[in-house]
Specification:
Elements (H helix, E strand, L loop, with lengths): L3 E7 L3 H13 L5 E4 L13 E2 L17 E3 L2 E5 L2 E4 L5 E3 L2 H14 L3 E3 L4 E5 L6 E4 L2 E10 L7 H5 L7 E9 L8 E4 L6 E8 L2 E10 L9 H9 L12 E7 L8 E2 L2 E3 L15 H21 L7 H26 L1 H8 L2 H11 L5 H4 L2 H12 L1
Parallel strand pairs: 1-2, 1-11, 2-8, 5-13, 11-18
Antiparallel strand pairs: 3-7, 4-7, 5-6, 9-10, 10-11, 12-15, 12-16, 13-14, 14-15, 17-18
Helix pairs in contact: 1-2, 1-5, 5-6, 6-7
């Protein structure tokens, strides 16, 4: 007889592991199965900047997973460098950070199976069933946390048509930086370049929005090389060069489909303005865990829809404002850039990233409206 799990989570990234951990924390008797196609630890291309606010969603010490701490962010536009107040930011290597979260979930009683390719989910009947490369698994609730490259949610018709940010990243392990994080708007007219300092080098990258037929024509490798040269990186070693798509939040979508839920990047947990993804992913896992725990305790699976509401209130609503700002920035980059090259703009950005405030509170909508009006007329 097939074992019936309370919850099956597909994907062991930050959203999946944090969700699994918190379900067991809130409901110790729950049988939670976590599946992933990779074997851990595994490399994951990512700038690796994490807001310390993630500590609000996990009750264990994250210091062992932190590579280094950076407290200075520099915005670069039109050759001008602007930095503001000091805000501590955590720098992480995803192979170490993700594996640490996974170890905490397993220590808390979560069953984990790696190297499992999930092929389908059958939702007919009371309990949905996962069809995988190693067999079938049945659960009361299934959570998809497969990330931006996953195909399962799309196959099931659950994935929204999110805006895609094409990103290319280069890990330079021998460079010695100055410990500052750089966000640079001078190397791409539809995105930005970045330099995230790590204890053993630099994470250098560039991202650009993909629009319709422009897919594959963003020209990121050439732009990235132009950017890295200022840090004395004159050649890109292909083994340290990684390209990947990022699915940005693109508006409210349905995240609960009967007993199947979406969390993390596939749910739209990437800031459409900055492309920050780790903090909102972990937060979405935390929100889902609270709703799932209640549903299991009360045997009320209709209540899962409350995750939709919680996600919109806690994540989506502010991302809506970030999306508006991102749209105006890409349509009117030259006019809006002056707003970014100010100490107040950098402080506002860092205040939002650190979780101390929101976009709605920090964005000067009246000034943006004036700039857009001038650009039209």
């Amino acid at each position: 007889m097939t074992k019936l799990y309370d919850v099956i989570i597909i994907g062991a990234g930050p959203s999946g592991t944090s969700c699994a951990y918190n379900i067991k924390r809130l409901n110790p008797e729950a049988n939670v199965l976590l599946l992933d196609k990779a074997e851990f630890p595994r490399y994951k291309p990512c700038g690796g900047g994490v807001s310390p606010e993630v500590a609000n969603y996990l009750d264990f010490d994250l210091k062992p997973a932190i590579d280094s701490v950076c407290d200075t962010v520099v915005m670069v536009a039109n050759g001008q460098e602007i930095s503001g107040d000091k805000y501590p930011l955590w720098m992480v290597r995803r192979e170490k950070f993700d594996n640490y979260l996974l170890s905490k979930a397993k220590d808390n009683g979560v069953e984990f199976q790696h190297s499992v390719e999930v092929q389908d989910i059958i939702t007919t009947g009371e309990s949905p069933t996962v069809i995988s490369s190693i067999g079938e698994f049945t659960a009361k609730i299934i959570i998809i946390a497969e990330g931006g490259r996953g195909k399962l949610a799309k196959k099931l018709g659950y994935a929204a048509k999110n805006t895609i940010l094409a990103a290319m990243e280069y890990e330079h392990y021998t460079a010695k930086g100055n410990g500052k994080l750089y966000i640079d708007f001078d190397y791409n007219d539809s995105g930005y370049a970045w330099n995230f300092p790590k204890s053993d080098g630099l994470s250098l990258g560039i991202g650009g929005f993909v629009k319709g037929q422009e897919k594959g024509k963003v020209g990121l490798p050439h732009k990235l090389l132009n950017y890295t040269k200022q840090f004395s990186v004159n050649e890109l070693d292909k083994k340290n060069l990684h390209g990947h798509p990022i699915l940005l939040y693109s508006g409210r979508q349905k995240l609960v489909h009967n007993r199947v839920m979406l969390i993390g990047e596939i749910a739209g947990c990437v800031d459409p303005l900055t492309a920050e993804g780790i903090r909102p992913a972990i937060k979405s896992g935390f929100l889902a865990a609270k709703v799932v725990s209640y549903a299991l305790n009360k045997n009320d699976f209709r209540s899962l829809v409350n995750y939709d509401l919680a996600f919109h209130k806690e994540i989506g609503r502010d991302f809506y404002y970030a999306r508006i700002m991102s749209y105006f920035l890409n349509k009117n980059l030259k006019r809006i850039l002056p707003m970014l090259t100010s100490v107040s703009a950098v402080n506002g950005f860092m205040s939002v990233f650190s979780g101390k405030s929101t976009y709605h509170e920090k964005i000067n909508w009246r000034r943006i409206a004036k700039l857009i009006w001038k650009s039209i007329f």
